[in-house]
Amino acid sequence: MVSLTVVSEPETVASASRWIGVGRASEQSSDGPDQPGQSGMGTRALRAALAGRTPALIVFFASSELELAALSADLRGAVEANIPVVGCTTAGEIGTDGPGDRSVVVAAFGGDDFSVAAAVAENVSAGLREAGAKVAAAVSHLDERAHRILLLLTDGLAGDQQEIVRGAYSVVGAGVPLVGGCAGDDQHMKTTNVFFNGRVLTNAIVGVAIGSTSPFGIGVRHGWRRVGEPILVTGSIGTTVLNLDDEPALDVYLRRLGASPDCADPDAFRRFAMTHPLGLSKRTGEEVRSIVGADFVERSLQCVAHVPQGGLAWIMDGDDESVLAATDGACVDALEQLGGRKPKGVLAFDCIARRGVLGGAGIEREVGRIGTAINGAPVAGFYSYGEIARTKGTGGFHNQTLVVLAVS
Fold first, then answer.
1. Consecutive 10-residue averages of pLDDT for the chain (408 residues)
2. Are 315 and 257 in contact (CB under 8 A)?
3. Residues 264, 328: one domain?
4. 342 in the same domain as 257
5. Virtual torsion, Cα 323, 326, 327, 330, nearest 10 deg
6. C-alpha span between 302 and 290 (Å, rounded)
7. Do 152 and 120 have their domain in common?
8. Alpha carbons 151 and 179: distance in angstroms, whole number
9. Using alpha carbons only, what angle is made at residue 382 by residues 129 and 65, rounded to the nearest 5 degrees?
10. Could you say which of 269, 294, 316 is where a domain stops?
11. What are the start-end ranges of the H helices in 258-296?
12. Per residue in 278-330, pLDDT tens?
């Protein structure tokens, strides 16, 4: 099932404009004693983002620990019915004021320069590629604009996310970049949600086509480094790696890293694997694959996207220095595509594994560096279970990266 919402306003020389505003609210923030806890969080964040202006699009990122139905309805009811209100749950939120948890961050896009169309697909695990194609069709509903992107927010646990990207690419082709992220659930790895016009959905994806008279810029970097010698993937089925160098994949992985016996516990293994992904050899460089679990009987590894049999792989790791260098690089790459224009705002999709490497103080530094790079423009984003950035080629799903979308 696909639902579509289109926003289109006539552009005139006198009214041509574009702006982005960002607001945040948490249980600790309120307008007074009449709004304790989570009550009114959505409208508080929205009010800060709008600053009295009329939006064309609302995008919000919310902790899975919040009262999601009330929050989503709160935001849907606060703006006119023809304005798309979309978003997803997170593994941590990013705002102009820094990273946080148990909060909601709202990004509002406004001005006549933007044309917006939003769509949702449900029951996507039955056909991920078809679902990606369906939401990508929203691009055809945009008014004529020189620059277009497709923003994708997906259920992070629905299956091979690369299939969603392939489906979207089959519709929009090379002319429309894809960008976005996979919803999180505060690292519980049980249920992630997307939001579409007041509805809270699982096993669904949202696509938002955005047209603008001014360029978009997309940067993507990961910051991981190879550890040891390459490994041949000698057995895999879809996202499951069965054998590495003709041995059980889990055994090779743990031995190569000198992992502690504690990693025999599934939760401990998941935490360990978060900061030790697989790197796959590609013509364009390395492609990173998150390891999200293991089968301790079959001795296999479970990844979040397809790992091809016969391919060359490396175990990878990183540290504060390498991860923050990637942050700087992603910002530089995104800003270079704006043709010298200043960004009106930035959306950031940052993998939860990078957060695991940096720690609390590190993610504060990271968001501060993004803010410095973009000269204090508004920032909204979230810690994700996978990132989407396709600017060339048919690929575009990433693990353990930072994706930066700069809007001029």
1. 43 59 84 60 96 97 96 96 97 96 97 97 96 97 96 93 94 95 92 97 98 96 89 94 97 92 88 88 76 93 89 90 94 96 97 89 95 95 94 79 96
2. yes
3. no
4. no
5. -160
6. 9
7. yes
8. 5
9. 100
10. 316
11. 266-274
12. 988 876 667 888 898 899 999 999 987 789 999 999 998 888 899 999 999 99
Number of domains in the chain: 2
Fill in the DSSP letter of residue 55. Answer: P
DSSP reduced 3-state for 223: coil
| Structural domain of 311 | 225-316
Is 199 found in the same domain as 303? no
**CB proximity list for 364: less than 8 A, separation 6 or greater:** 98, 99
Phi, psi for residue 111 in degrees, rounded to 5: 110, 155
Instruction: Judge if 194 and 213 occupy the same domain.
Output: yes
Tokens 């939760």 locate to 267
Distances (CA, A) of 78 to 6, 72, 158, 198: 18, 10, 30, 11
| Of the residues 270, 288, 316, the one at which a domain ends | 316
Residues 6+ apart with CB under 8 A from 400: 222, 224, 277, 288, 290, 351, 353, 354
**Residue the block writes with tokens 């590495």:** 244
Task: Say if residue 141 is in the same domain as residue 83.
Answer: yes
pLDDT given for residue 36 in this prediction: 52
Q: Contacts from 267-271 at CB under 8 Å and sequence distance 24+?
A: 269/293, 269/294, 270/189, 271/356
- Find tokens 């009329």 and name the residue: 54
- At 261 the pLDDT is 86
Helices 266-274, 352-373: crossing angle, 10 deg rounding: 30
**Alpha helices, DSSP H, located in 137-282:** 161-172, 249-257, 266-274
Q: Are residues 329 and 275 in the same domain?
A: no
What's the CATH number where 297 sits? 2.40.30
* Residues 8-36 pLDDT 10s: 333 333 334 899 999 999 987 655 444 55
The tens digit of pLDDT for each residue in 100-114 reads 999 999 999 999 999
Residues 299, 371, single domain; the answer is: no
Give yes or no for a contact between 359 and 317, defined as CB atoms under 8 angstroms apart: no
What is the C-alpha to C-alpha distance for residues 239 and 301, in angstroms, rounded to an integer? 9
Q: What pTM was computed for the model?
A: 0.86
